[in-house]
Amino acid sequence: MQRSFSRVKNSRGFTLVELAVVIVIIGVLAAFGVPRFLKSVEKSKGAEAFAYLAAVRSAQERFQSQQGTYASSVSDLDTQSAPPKYFSVGAIGAGTTSSLENSWKLTLTRIGASAGYSSYTVVFTDQGFDSTSTIDSSISPITQ
């Protein structure tokens, strides 16, 4: 009889309290880690928009030097960049001078919302990134 009692006493395993503590620790780590992960994913999607707009800006400068005016359509440009996957591309319009001869403006709008960020826009002009963009500075690839 004493032999079977000692066997139970020596058995190894986790108690319910130990398992509960581990679950709480994992929950706390996830509470801090998941929002950072989602923010970095959204920031990479924003970087896609900036890369596309930078390619459009370069193509616009080449077009302007050859034609004397900026292009009115992205399809007129010699850019090899595919349209961004997570943004809708607006139409190229005249910028601050109200004439495509001197300025242009292009807006990308985030399709849907992700990671708690509402839909936002990224605007580029002939001068580069435009402050009328509504992208959150915490996910903008150009801010630190």
From TrEMBL:
It comes from the Bacteria. It is found in: Membrane. It is a single-pass membrane protein. One of its GO terms (biological process) is type IV pilus assembly. The chain crosses the membrane at residues 12-34. One of its GO terms (cellular component) is type II protein secretion system complex. Signal peptide: none annotated. Keywords: Membrane, Methylation, Transmembrane, Transmembrane helix. Pfam families: ComP_DUS, N_methyl. This is Type II secretion system protein G.
